[in-house]
Amino acid sequence: MLLFSDPRSVASSEERFSRCLYCGRELVVLPNDRRGGACFDCLALAVAPPVACPQCGSVIPGEERALGCPECRWYPGRD
């Protein structure tokens, strides 16, 4: 059961269907779709790449970037 309706629509039926970039599964794509061409199963696996901490240089896993650096306790936005 939907709690709200989705007001988005496509201009033509050719724009509506696509394939997942990772597994090839057929997708229904609506305007402003933020999945980046991935199905929901593959989107969960498409994790952001690791980055280096700007303060100490240790590697921060992509899924933990918003938490900051586990080594030196650097936190984004608190420079």
Globular, elongated, flat, extended or rod-shaped: what is the shape? elongated
Indicate the structural class. Answer: mainly beta
Largest beta-sheet details:
2 strands, antiparallel
Strand order of the largest sheet: 1-2
> Which stretches are low in confidence, meaning pLDDT under 50 for 5 or more residues running?
none
Q: Give the tally of structural domains.
A: 2
Mean pLDDT: 76
Count of DSSP-assigned helices: 1
The level of helicity is: under 10%
Gyration radius, rounded: 18 Å
Q: Give me the strand/helix succession.
A: EEHEE
Terminal CA distance: 45 Å
The count of β-strands is 4
Strand content: 5-15%
